[in-house]
């Protein structure tokens, strides 16, 4: 029994010694945690600094065709192909779009024409009355003059003399009444003429015509529908004057609108034609801003050529305003400017470089590039920045140089799992390719 206890005790002591030996090996002889650099390659590329926004494709000029009279739509006019006007129909200036029932307006015109004839007859009657009144006035003047000559000789009685004077005054008044009747008849004729012109104009409004050459974008009425004209003329047809010239109305945030200038080049895509890039230029920046949820935006008009008719009205456009462009320049990821190594990572020969100040006015920046099995600093001049990549220039800069963009810690357990054990490994070894075309390289 004692032998068994001694055997178990010996095995326990042996297990403890083995465990302590493994811990000691991992601490003093096994692989240690390593710093892994994330790197990228300096390459030539094209850079664009831009502002992105969304907008809507709009026809350059739209015309709302309304009705100035009310009534029922009885028929649609023909388009250029002889078919009834419908969505997408091409129409010519002056072409008939629709007819409104004109029976009431035709009756009003006939009534106005009758009033016109009646007023003309009244004028003729008034002219005849004036001639009669003038004749009576002339006779009364002769009788009055004769009475004036005979009265001093008592050849006529006093009452006869008075009657002659009264007849003259009555004849004179009758002439004035006849002339007033003529003026009244003339006024009635003018009113009848105006009523006739208004009735004729209303009758002509029953024929809806196109004011321009264009394409029917929207037809808002059907045959048999009654159009009610009120203070605002109802819109029956929406016509695009020229679909070969289109606009994109873009909502631009107030923080970016200051960089938008007339003539600025623009690129945009639409979901309907995702594989095609359209081009345009800024035509106008509207000053009437709008606010939605405390966000102020301005509408920017972008004009574009649509000679092939690809773009359709009211498509949603993903717009990019091209503020600046560079082609074939050396560039590095912006992460390269944010990387700063610790003191232990910097070779002694380059520690003094960090004390040299950078000229911010010249846009000098410091990056770290691969130098053998180590890294070294390199001062470059920063140029155009597209948000993720920056143009750089320096006499020492060459295409293909490896630049450090970041670092991470690789634990000892991960190294053992990956079979990385040697202390003499190069700090820049290739690793699994990354999705963003970067490489992971290690350094002690």
Defining key terms:
444 residues, alpha+beta, six-stranded antiparallel β-barrel, four-stranded antiparallel sheet, 30% helix, disordered C terminus
The largest β sheet comes out as: 6 strands, antiparallel, barrel
The count of strands amounts to 21
Poorly predicted regions are 420-424, 429-444
Helical percentage: 25-40%
Overall mean pLDDT stands at 84
Biggest sheet strand line-up: 2-11-15-13-12-16
N- to C-terminal distance: 55 Å
Rg on CA atoms, Å: 50 Å
Number of helices: 5
Strand/helix succession: HEEEEEEHHEEEEEEEEEEHEEEEHE
Secondary structural class = alpha+beta
Summarize this entry quickly:
The chain is of the alpha+beta class. It has helices at 2-28, 103-150, 158-205, 335-338, 412-418, and strands at 34-41, 43-59, 62-66, 71-76, 90-91, 96-100, 207-209, 214-219, 226-227, 235-240, 245-253, 265-270, 273-285, 290-292, 295-305, 316-333, 364-371, 374-385, 389-393, 402-410, 439-443. Helix 2 (103-150) packs antiparallel against helix 3 (158-205).
Q: What does this protein structure show overall?
A:
This protein has helices spanning 2-28, 103-150, 158-205, 335-338, 412-418, and strands at residues 34-41, 43-59, 62-66, 71-76, 90-91, 96-100, 207-209, 214-219, 226-227, 235-240, 245-253, 265-270, 273-285, 290-292, 295-305, 316-333, 364-371, 374-385, 389-393, 402-410, 439-443. With 444 residues, the protein is α+β, with helices and mostly antiparallel strands. The strands form four sheets. The protein has a six-stranded antiparallel β-barrel with strand order 2-11-15-13-12-16. Strands 3-10-8-5 form a four-stranded antiparallel β-sheet, with no helix packed on it. It has a four-stranded antiparallel β-sheet with strand order 7-6-4-9. It is rod-shaped and about 190 Å long. The protein starts with a helix and ends with a strand. Residues 420-424 and 429-444 have low confidence and may be disordered.
């Amino acid at each position: 029994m004692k032998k068994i206890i001694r055997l178990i005790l010996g095995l326990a002591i042996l297990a403890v010694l083995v465990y302590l030996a493994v811990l000691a090996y991992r601490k003093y002889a096994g692989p240690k945690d390593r710093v892994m650099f994330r790197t990228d390659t300096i390459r030539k590329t094209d850079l664009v600094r831009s502002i992105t926004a969304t907008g809507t494709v709009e026809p350059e000029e739209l015309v709302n065709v309304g009705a100035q009279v009310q009534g029922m739509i009885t028929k649609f006019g023909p388009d250029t192909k002889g078919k009834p006007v419908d969505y997408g129909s091409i129409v010519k200036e002056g072409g008939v779009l629709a007819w409104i029932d004109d029976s009431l307006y035709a009756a009003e015109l006939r009534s106005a024409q009758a009033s016109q004839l009646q007023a003309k007859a009244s004028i003729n009657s008034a002219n005849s009355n004036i001639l009669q009144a003038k004749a009576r006035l002339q006779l009364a003047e002769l009788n009055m003059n004769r009475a004036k000559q005979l009265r001093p000789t008592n050849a006529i009685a006093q009452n006869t003399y008075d009657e002659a004077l009264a007849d003259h005054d009555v004849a004179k008044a009758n002439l004035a009444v006849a002339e007033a009747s003529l003026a009244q008849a003339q006024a009635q004729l003018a009113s009848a003429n105006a009523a006739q012109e208004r009735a004729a104009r209303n009758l002509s409004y029953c024929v809806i015509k196109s004011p321009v050459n264009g394409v029917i974008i929207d037809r808002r009425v059907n045959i048999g529908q009654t159009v009610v004209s009120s203070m605002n003329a109802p819109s029956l047809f929406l016509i695009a004057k020229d679909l070969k010239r289109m606009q994109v109305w873009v909502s631009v945030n107030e923080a970016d609108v200051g960089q938008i200038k007339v003539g600025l080049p623009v690129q945009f895509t639409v979901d309907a034609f995702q594989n095609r890039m359209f081009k345009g230029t800024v035509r106008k920046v509207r000053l009437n801003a709008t606010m939605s949820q405390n966000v102020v935006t301005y509408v920017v008009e972008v004009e574009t050529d649509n000679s092939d008719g690809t773009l359709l009205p009211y498509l949603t456009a993903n717009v990019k305003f091209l503020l600046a462009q560079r082609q074939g320049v050396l560039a590095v990821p912006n992460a390269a400017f944010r990387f700063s190594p610790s003191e232990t990572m910097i070779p002694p020969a380059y520690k003094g470089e960090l004390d040299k100040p950078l000229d911010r006015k010249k846009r000098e920046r410091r990056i770290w590039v691969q130098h053998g099995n180590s890294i070294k600093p390199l001062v470059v001049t920063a140029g155009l920045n597209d948000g993720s990549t920056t143009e750089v220039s320096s006499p020492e800069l060459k295409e293909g140089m490896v630049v450090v963009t970041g670092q991470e810690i690789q634990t000892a357990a991960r190294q053992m799992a990956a079979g990385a054990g040697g202390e003499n490994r190069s700090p820049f070894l290739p690793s699994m390719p990354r999705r963003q075309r970067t490489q992971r390289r290690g350094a002690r």
